[in-house]
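Sequence of Molecular chaperone TorD family protein (Paenibacillus borealis).
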Amino acid sequence: MTIPTVPSLVVPEVCSRWLESRGLIYQLLVDFYGRKPSLSLVAQWSRNREMSVAAEMTEGGRELKRYLCSQEPAMLPAICEKEKLEYKRLMNERAASTFVAREAAQLGREEEFCNVISDVYAAAGIVFKKCSGEADDHIAIELEFMAVLHERMLYNSFSIRSAMELLEIQENFLEEHLLKWTPQFCERLNAATDSPLYLGLSHMLEEFLPQDLHMLRAWKASLESSAAAMA
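Predicted 3D structure, token representation.
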């Protein structure tokens, strides 16, 4: 992934690596939390050079990289079958009511809470086509919301103002939603599995989200400084 050149939007060097990697990390988390780990999915990410760089941002990412990249090709089908079974066990809401990958369930909210999340998506102009009927507050959908906003911020922002608006939506969503419930979700996931894949994903998620919020705030401060200098 490369950062497009936008004359009025300056990306400080300290933010460049983060911006180049965060979209990949969000997409990896969406892919593995949102569907069973197929052979094509595992092969895709284990061979992705950009993902290899992005993984170095967190210890959980390095765990995942070691696990996925150390496997012999002939072993991947068996590994995928094992991890598919683990995905079904972990993500089956009816079988494990205390471990549900949804914000409302983790925070003890009513089912109608999904309407709050869907309103947030609608306000940002985003509508998801959910092939498997996922709830709007499912971990994969909330992470995909961040991935979509990231892409818009990089590729459709032609001014500091538009970038700032998209940045603030992401900052608010992390503060008001993802970071309020994913620490508990990750704690429960860590206790529920010994899978190197899902432990790596859990560790990556719990480490990356606070780091991402910190970097969003740092870039926001840089944009505000740039805007003030141009005023």
